[in-house]
Amino acid sequence: MIIKIISKIKKFIAYKVLWFFISKIKKVSKFQKANGIIQREYLSKNPYKSYINHQKFKFYIYNFLGAFDDQKIKIENFKINFSYLKLKFPNYQYTLCLGARSGAEVQAFRDLGYFSIGIDINYPKNSPYVLYGDFHNLDFPGNCFDVVYSNCLDHVYNYQLFLKDVKRVLKKEGRIIFDIHTGINEETHHNNLGAFETKGWLTTQDLINEFQKHGLFLDEKKKINTIMNQYVFKITK
């Protein structure tokens, strides 16, 4: 019992220390807006390194708050959201999940019969689902995945680099699936660029327009809940 209490105290102290560093990061960043997209800019000598360190904090906070405890519920929800793929694309086999954290989406794909792997800059120890990886520079050969999935578009540092590599690893007839929150100017006011977000968008259409500039074409839209929709994109190579 005493050991558990000491452990919780240590976690609480670590949590407070992390928030101290996060507040420091917020003081050395600013936001730029263009064409409805809002970008956090890091003002340090090495902006990309600051971005990586900033994003890693979220995993620790999630872990501390027990956000991974509802893994089974998340897996079932992902399975519901991905189930239509089997009917629409029966030949698809290989999926890649970007920013997969605990790997719930990966396990959901596997339960549905896909070969699936996830990457993240931080991941659970000895995870069978998630490998270390930066989604701006994917360590996979080209044309090898039928589906690339992510729900972390508000944590992308550079859409051009991100989408360039996503398109590179995707097969010619493959699909890109993004779960996207509603924008700042839309009714839910959910995407508010909090402590961890690197990107924001005024409306979802602003984000779609940005993707179209980089060669993505909207194929399908599906409502998930009041603040989230799933968008399926295809590309022409």
Q: From the coordinates shown, what is the CATH architecture of the largest domain? A: 3-Layer(aba) Sandwich
- Which word captures the global form? globular
- Under CATH, the topology of the largest domain can be stated as Rossmann fold
CATH class of the largest domain: Alpha Beta
Q: Summarize the biggest pleated sheet.
A: 7 strands, mixed
Radius of gyration computed on alpha carbons: 18 Å
Per DSSP, the total helix count is 7
Tally of extended strands? 10
Adjacency order of strands in the biggest sheet: 5-4-3-6-7-10-9
The pLDDT mean sits at 86
Distance between the ends: 60 Å
Q: Considering the protein shown, what is the CATH homologous superfamily of the largest domain?
A: Vaccinia Virus protein VP39
